[in-house]
Amino acid sequence: MAVVLAAGLSKRMRSDTIKVLHRVGGRESVARVVDACHGLAPVVVVGHQGERVRGALAHAEVTFVEQAEPRGTGDAVLRAEAATAGAANILVLYGDGAVLTRELIAELVRRHHAGAAAATLLTGEMDDPAGYGRVVRDPGGRVLAIVEEADCTPEQRRIREWYTGVACYRRSDLFEALHQVGTANAKGEVYLTDAVGILARTGHQVDAFCSARAEEAIGVDDRADLAEAERIIRGRVLARLFEAGVTVRDPATTYVDERAEIGQDTVLEPMTIIEGPCRIGRRCVIGPGSHVVASQVADDVRVTHAVVEESRVGEGCVIGPFAHLRPGTVLGHDVEVGNFAEIKNSTVGAGSKAHHHSYIGDADLGARVNVGAGVITVNYDGRSKHRTTVADDAFLGCNVNLIAPIEVGDGAYVAAGSTVNQPVPAGSLAIARERQSNKLEWAARRAAQHDEKG
Question: What's the DSSP call for residue 204?
């Protein structure tokens, strides 16, 4: 089993949101940690903002226990004593370990099971492990204790081996030790790390797995840590994309959610964001300056300086520049959506074009529809939304208003400048505008009147 500690106040984050709920790679840190514990039946210890943590993990199969008062990491683990009853060994880790991988955890668990230790610690080495507990060993290399940085002597601060906060324990030995831990320390709390010293002093074997991959276990305690974790996750994602045959013009300015799937020979131009569980096909060009959110994009699509949210885009479509596909948009193949065009909760058939300054909302457009500049589907009457239906091969002239609910038939034309509130039959021409009248010599008369008054 695993025990994930997610009850801290997170003061160093300087945020109204506790650190385990800050997002890295598009997901909350605690959700990433629970995912890394796959197959270990996680018990999550919650406290401050516990309901929000429960909400972030609503998708996961976990057990929750509560630490009502923040009395330290050791006390938090004690809250999980009953929930872990029956387990021979438990993995303990922190909910802010946003870059942990299943592979590293599996290796630690394997080493613990293969040995005879009461505890197997995941440790690393660095020149300046500031902020982390130090691993104290005897001259023979045996682990004696973990000393939190706030309690380190100057000599102990120079120790290069640091404790990641991730460890496997023989359950019975861990809880026996935890019940002996006091609060005589700089914070007046029950430290989980003190249990390691108790185990060592009472003759139990404590092993340390000093991994070259220990950076995967860094905690996200402040905004700098958050940025570093994001860098690590982004690096992993980009490495996967390169291996899959995706070109990223400028990795430094490109963000790709790790849940995204992108096809071979697709190019991501600079300043592009792929957010959420997107699926992007082959031979696409996304960007520069584009933002795709939780959408499906088929093969051979071009998205330039545009936003695509929760939409489905068919093969060969051209989106942008400066277009906006809002949630619920479905485009058939070879649709073109151009400058300052906006589509929301609508379907647009194959080969249709909306090139300039138009709004299509709550509408169903057929194939090969021409949407002229300035076309508006007037879908909202102040209380309710209404749908517009435009059949195949219809032609909507510039500056047309379609007052929904309304239907435009197959091959029908709506003349430029018309405001239409009645159905347009197939093959017909709808003209809904005042007849033009010309006032001859009006400009000269107006100028003369102005001169007289001047």
Answer: -
195 and 260 together in one domain: no
> Do 206 and 304 belong together in one domain?
no
Cα–Cα distances in Å, from 279 out to 24, 118, 227, 293, 303?
20, 45, 26, 10, 14
Backbone angles phi, psi at 355, to 5 degrees: -85, -30
CATH code of the domain in which 132 resides: 3.90.550.10
**Domain membership of residue 346 as a residue range:** 245-430
- pTM equals 0.84
- Which stretch of DSSP H or E encloses residue 255? strand 255-256
- What is the Cα–Cα distance from 288 to 271, expressed in whole angstroms? 6
Highest mean pLDDT (candidates 148-157, 166-175, 181-190): 166-175
Sheet of strand 247-248, all strands in order from the earlier edge strand to the far edge: 247-248, 267-268, 285-286, 302-303, 318-319, 336-339, 353-356, 370-371, 395-396, 413-414, 429-430
Given the residues 22, 356, 386, 450, the one annotated as active site: 356
The SS3 assignment for 407 reads: strand
Q: Is 164 left (phi over 0), alpha (psi -120 to 50) or beta?
A: alpha
CB 404, CB 386: distance < 8 Å: yes
Rounded mean pLDDT, 293-303: 98
Task: Count how many domains the chain has.
Answer: 2
Strands 63-66 and 27-28: unpaired
Q: Are strands 133-137 and 143-147 parallel, antiparallel or unpaired?
A: antiparallel
* Same domain (yes/no): 165, 53: yes
CATH number of the domain where residue 332 is located? 2.160.10.10
Sequence-ordered strand ranges (E) for 282-384: 285-286, 291-293, 296-297, 302-303, 307-309, 312-313, 318-319, 324-325, 330-331, 336-339, 342-344, 347-348, 353-356, 359-361, 363-365, 370-371, 376-378
Amino acid identity at 297: V
Q: For 2-31, what is the mean pLDDT?
A: 91
Distance of CA 451 to the CA centre of its chain: 66
Q: Please give the structure tokens belonging to residue 366.
A: 């057929």
How far from the centroid of its chain's Cα atoms is residue 76's Cα? 28
Let me know if 59 is a catalytic residue.
Answer: no
For residue 61 the two structure tokens come to 């199969």
Percentage with pLDDT > 90 across the chain: 80
Q: Using alpha carbons, list the distances in angstroms from residue 187 to 48, 133, 184, 197, 364.
A: 18, 14, 8, 18, 63
The total of other beta-carbon atoms located within 10 Å of residue 121's CB is 26
Task: Give Cα separations from 381 to 343, 363, 432 (angstroms).
Answer: 18, 15, 20
> In the numeric block, which tokens belong to residue 56?
């972030």
Beta-ladder partners of 168: 91, 120
